[in-house]
Amino acid sequence: MKTIRLFWLFTVMALMAVSCSDDDNDLESSIVGAWQSEIHTSRIWIFMSDGQVVSEDEYGTYYLNGDRLYISWTDEYGNYEEAFLIVELTSDTMILDELDEEGIAHDDPETYRRINMGNR
Fold first, then answer.
1. Residue 11 class from Cβ within 10 Å (0-12 exposed, 13-18 middle, 19+ buried)?
2. Which positions carry the signal peptide feature in this UniProt record (predicted)?
């Protein structure tokens, strides 16, 4: 009986691990595409499936860790990093709140809308 309980415990843990990694993959595939800021309409970020991100005058890499987005940028002045809390990410809306050096959100989220670059 104890063996059966352990078997079910390990089975449930394995299923939870698989579902968590599926959630991360869903988030990563959801962010891929072009996003335009509602506040700063000239700010457009393009996230590619290979971990690259570009804007008009910058390029870099990004990765997701849970509900956090990390971007390492390179521009004409050098390299810098940004971190964001992903408040919301749907098929057409992305809301990001910038994190400070301690990982605390600024409580000033910025909304981005998915755009079709073919129509620009």
1. exposed
2. 1-17
Q: Domain containing 96: what range?
A: 2-119
Only one residue has tokens 């595409």, namely 33
Tokens representing 116? 């079709």
The confidence score (pLDDT) of residue 118 equals 72
Distance CA 30, CA 67 (A): 13
User: In the numeric block, which tokens belong to residue 46?
Assistant: 């393009």
Give the Cα-Cα-Cα angle 25, 31, 34 (nearest 5 degrees): 150
Half-sphere exposure of residue 113: CA atoms within 13 angstroms, side-chain side: 7
3-state helix, strand, coil in the chain (%, to 5): 30, 45, 30
Look at residue 106 in the predicted model and tell me its pLDDT.
87
| Residue ranges in the chain whose pLDDT is less than 70 | 1-29, 119-120
Residue 1 belongs to what H/E stretch? none
- Structural domains counted in the chain: 1
Q: What is the pTM of this model?
A: 0.72
